[in-house]
Specification:
Structural class: alpha+beta
Radius of gyration: 24 Å
Strand content: 15-25%
Number of helices: 3
Order of helices and strands: HEHEEHEEEE
Amino acid sequence: MPILLSKSLPLSLGLLLASIAAVAQSTPVPMPNAVPPSQRIQQRGGAQAPYTYVEKMPIYLKGGKDSLQMFISTHVRGSASGSGAYVTFIIDQTGRVRRPALGPFPAESEAATDSEVASAFRSIGRFRPGYQNGKPVDVQMTMRIVKQLK
């Protein structure tokens, strides 16, 4: 009998470990920055902070990501076009660009937006808004400013 027990012990131990691994892999992992609106961080004035990543990200209606990159590289100029420069903006629930600013954060408010950056983004056009849990939401986007090679 001891011989039979010693041969079946590794097999049963292996099956136990495999079932534990299968349960661990089936546990859903939440998406970053995707929490129910009731748990979202409130900004000043009661507005909710924009998402940085959602189930359906905003899409630039005039040609997608490549056209958006081309627009930014041709319209945003000056000291912002150096290497490592970024422009950050918010796509609101209606697909309009709000609070564009140079750097990793959007402007604090529409009034605080740099006039040169704001004028560059006036002609950008519309986006299809981002969606989270089936509803349109505000999404913050950051794009690198790439210099055009001539």
